[in-house]
Amino acid sequence: MAILSPSLLAADFSHLGPSVKKIYEAGASYLHLDVMDGIFVPNISFGPCVIKAIRPCTNAVFDVHLMIDRPERYIDEFIESGADVLTIHYEATASPADVLTLIRQKGIKACIAIKPNTPIDVLDTILPLADMVLIMTVEPGFGGQKLLPETVDKIAALDARRKAFGYSFLIEADGGITMQNIHTLSAAGVDVFVAGSAVFGAQHPEAAVQNMLKAALNAKGRLNAKGCLNKSDLAE
Ligand code: DX5
Ligand code: ZN
Predict the structure, then answer these.
(1) What number does the ligand 1 atom closest to the CA of 32 have?
(2) Given this model, what pLDDT does residue 236 score?
(3) How far is CA 30 from the centre of its chain?
(4) Which of 30, 98, 124, 212 could bridge across to 63 with cysteines, CB 3.0–4.6 Å?
(5) Could you give the count of Cα atoms lying within 13 Å of 119 in the half-sphere of its Cβ?
(6) Is 9 in the pocket of ligand 1 (CB under 6 A)?
(7) What is the pLDDT of residue 221?
(8) How far is CA 60 from CA 20, 21, 63, 171, in A?
(9) pTM higher than 0.90, yes or no?
(10) Looking at residues 128-142, what average pLDDT do you find?
């Protein structure tokens, strides 16, 4: 499976509606929404009002990445704004397991994220509570950074653990993903690829979406004989 989740952070903020519409139509079934509070990360982005405003513009799965301190304070607000998947950081709360459980109880998908220096071992008891695990491939806070190569080993180790225990969570990678490295991440076990600059910074964002999905599926040996995308591999 390969899902592309373009990060809104790299989009033109004066034209959000038309931009998100276009990339969804090109095949990006998720939209990644980076919420930053200036405390957990040294940057401030946007909150529930912006998410709510673009919700009617697309049917994409709203993949909301909360880079905020004590995210448990704002779960209801983000669900009401239209989140389908809510990601919290392991490092941002005293009780990640309770917050994941709370998110699931509210009827949406729960995802746990870890920063580059946090080992996957800390997730051992949490994995059964997660619908998705986000491995940060850059330090959170800013778009346009270079992927940290050492994070690829973490992804491969997490994928091995997923297989060994028969878990069904998706693996998402976030930060510095480009046409040049997406195949490596795909081969390591990534299912959901976040890409900000590589999509919204491209001259033709729709073509970038198609080419990145093709490269990801190619690495998994999932292109059909004509070298095209199979619909069944593009999960909703
Ligand atoms: C970083 C964010 C990322 C970022 C990705 O804190 O979580 O989602 O916007 O942007 P690129 O693809 O430009 O690294
Ligand atoms: Zn993100």
Answers:
(1) 8
(2) 39
(3) 8
(4) 30
(5) 3
(6) yes
(7) 76
(8) 9, 9, 9, 18
(9) yes
(10) 98
Structure-token pair, residue 26: 């090109």
The helix-helix angle for 16-25 and 205-219 (nearest 10°) equals 40
Instruction: Please give the mean pLDDT across all residues of the chain.
Output: 95
CA-closest residue to ligand 1 atom 9: 143
Give the H or E element holding residue 30.
strand 30-36
* Cβ atoms of residues 158 and 170 within 8 Å: no
3-state class (DSSP) for residue 192: strand
Q: Over range 52-72, report the average pLDDT.
A: 98
CB 58 within 8 A of CB 29: no
pLDDT tens track for 77-130: 999 999 999 999 999 999 999 999 999 999 999 999 999 999 999 999 999 999
Enumerate the β-bridge partners of residue 174: 136, 194
Question: Which one of 37, 63, 131, 174 is the catalytic residue?
Answer: 174
Token reading at 8: 């809104």
Question: Given 12, 34, 124, 131, which residue is catalytic?
Answer: 34
Whether 47 and 71 have beta carbons less than 8 Å apart is answered as: no
Residue type, 208: A
Identity of the amino acid at 173: A
What 3-state class would DSSP assign to 170?
Answer: strand
Q: List, for residues 146-159, the tens digit of each pLDDT value.
A: 999 999 999 999 99
CA–CA separation, 93 and 108 (whole Å)? 19
